[in-house]
Structures are given as structure tokens and as C-alpha cells.
Amino acid sequence: MTQTPLKILITGAGGMLGTDLSNALGREFDVVGLERRPVTHLATPYDICDLTQARKTREAILSHKPDLIIHAAAMTDVDYCEEHHDEALENNVGATESVVSAAGEIDAPVIFFSTDYVFDGKKKGEYDESDVPDPISFYGKTKRMGEEIILRDAKRAVIFRITWLFGIWGRCFPKSILRQAAEVKTMNVVHDQAGRPTWSWDLALAIQELLNKKREKILAPGREIFHLGNSGSVHWADYARFVLKEAGLSTVKIKEISSADLNRPAPRPANSVLSLKKAEKVLGLKLRPWKDAVTEFLPKLREALAAQEAKAKAQDAEKENTAS
Ligand SMILES: NC(=O)c1ccc[n+]([C@@H]2O[C@H](COP(=O)([O-])OP(=O)(O)OC[C@H]3O[C@@H](n4cnc5c(N)ncnc54)[C@H](OP(=O)(O)O)[C@@H]3O)[C@@H](O)[C@H]2O)c1
Prior knowledge:
Elements: E1 7-11, H1 16-25, E2 30-35, E3 46-48, H2 54-64, E4 68-71, H3 78-83, H4 85-106, E5 110-115, H5 138-153, E6 156-162, E7 165-166, H6 173-181, E8 186-190, E9 194-195, E10 198-199, H7 200-213, H8 215-219, E11 222-227, E12 234-235, H9 236-246, E13 253-257, H10 259-262, H11 277-283, H12 290-323
Parallel strand pairs: 1-2, 1-4, 2-3, 4-5, 5-6, 6-11, 7-10, 8-13
Antiparallel strand pairs: 9-12
Helix pairs in contact: 1-7, 2-4, 4-5, 6-9
NADP nicotinamide-adenine-dinucleotide phosphate binds near residues 36, 51, 52 and 115.
């Protein structure tokens, strides 16, 4: 007898991580997404649902009755959150409350993605899961509040704190460096924040591996936090240099500046390096070094951008033909 595949509901399915999760998990599980607005790049099915609307969120989740909910939706623009507290609370806290409450009604376990920004970044050495969070930005505060909801209210949940994401389907550092490299000969990049760049595709594959090899860790009652990311660490300026070198753009120079020079609305932790030991020991998850991930990512990004451009041109041509 064939087994019915696990039914997985992914919130924020059209975002950077959500799209990679949908693509990776959609290959072998029954995946449905929730997304705030239409997205043209998503190959798996999804419903439009604004998670800040509690009743609609409950209805959407109960109607699909998934075996597992992956809550990847969030308001992720850290500076915007700093200046728009109510919206940040609605999207990162209120939405998480609704998702967890509906998950409880159908007894579905929840995977929640949190962030290194729950820490103040003052620790010397890597942060492990037992370190006490003390966020310094409003975004970090809302993500910590989301964690607290999960830890208090969810019957079965795993929180993955992830860091410095890059990916094809969202705003990310390598894209921004390559965009600037087309316009300037020298760019200013901060040198006083360290972290682990992590490819959203590698995270999606790790979740897939987990569901195949250690599903009981996710489905079992209880709540647990794990740190997860590509291995190795770097500061932003060296990260930028590596991206430029790999893209064959080493003639563009990096001028190192401090976070104070950059003067962004939200403060960032100086140390964002999370220990990956627990995920490796307990879940058997060990992601490759971030440099290997970036090296594989850059050509994929070029292909994706070329495909997007070709699609846009074809759509324009079609519009012109229809109009004439
Ligand atoms: N990016 C990072 O460096 C990073 C680091 C650590 C942790 N994380 C966490 O990882 C997760 C995924 O991040 P990401 O970078 O993939 O984010 P992202 O690209 O910004 O995607 C988030 C998605 O969630 C959707 N969304 C937000 N609020 C929603 C709502 N109220 N209703 C429905 N959809 C909503 C967004 O839609 P709209 O675009 O329409 O708002 C977007 O498609 C988040 O929980 C984030 O906090 C990210």
C-alpha cells in the first residue's frame, strides 16, 4: 500500500526561503502555500491569505488541515520594522499567534524560523541555544515575541534560528553587491558585524532531509530551538570581497566602514555567529561552508535573472501584439 505523502502548509511561500522550501519539499510532499499577494514565480499551489487577518488565517489553515505547518512568513525589512512598530507587531507577532492557534486546533506541529537578531551581539564567541536573548532592534524584539508564543502555546514545534540569508527569490546581500558593482568603482561595506551567510536553498534541503530521516524530531510533542546555517563565518566587507571575486569583479574595491558610519535606523548585533553544534548532534544536520554555497549560488542567480528578463520581454511582446 502506498503511503499518503505528508501534507505541508508553508506560510510566506513566495518569499526567499518560502519559495525554496516550496520547490524542495514540493518534489516529494503535498505542499500548499499561503502568501499575502499573487507571486508569479511559485510552481506549487498557494492561497492568498494575509496572516494579519486572524479569522481568514484560521479558515485557510483549517480548510487545508496540514500534517505540518512551516511558518516562514515575516516582515523581514529590519529598518522598516524599526520605524513601523505596529505593522511589525501585526506581521511578526499577531500572525504567529494566529498560525499557532490554528495549528493547535488541528494538532499540527509547527516549524518556525527565527533569527540571530534575538541576541544583542555582545557575546565573545558563538551563541548557543541556551544563551539568553536580548534583542536590540524592533525586528529582533518581534521575532523573539514570536519565539515566546511558540514556546508557550504550541504543542509540537521546532524553532530554527537562521542567519544572513541569501537566495534567488528575495532581497539579499550578494544581489545588492552585484547591483552596486555595476554602478560604482568603490563601495562602502561594514566590517564590524560578523555572521554566517546562509543559502535559503541549503536550508530548504536541510528541512527536506530532516523530514525524511528524523521526522519524529519534528512531529513529537514538545518545543525545541536549534541554530542552523551554512558553516564558517565572515564580516560583511570580506563577504562582499568574496562575492566580487567569484563574480569576476575584483576590480571593484571595498572600503571598510563601521556600523556607526552607515547609520541605519535599526541597530544590528556585532556578533551574529550562532553555534551549529546542537543541530548537528541532535538532528544530524550539517550544512556546507558558506563560501561553497555562494560559489554555487552566483551562476544560478545569473540564470534566474536572465530567465526573468526573457519572461518579461516575452510578456511585453505579447501585450504589444494584443494591442496592435
Ligand atoms: N532574510 C534573512 O536574512 C533572515 C535571517 C534570519 C531569519 N529570517 C527569517 O526567515 C524567515 C524567511 O525570511 P525571508 O528572508 O525568506 O523573508 P521574505 O523573503 O521577506 O519572505 C517573507 C514572505 O512572507 C510574506 N508575508 C509577510 N507577512 C505576511 C502576512 N501578514 N501574510 C502573508 N504573507 C506575509 C511576505 O509577503 P510580502 O512580501 O507581500 O510582505 C514574503 O513573501 C522569516 O521568518 C525571517 O524572519 C530571515
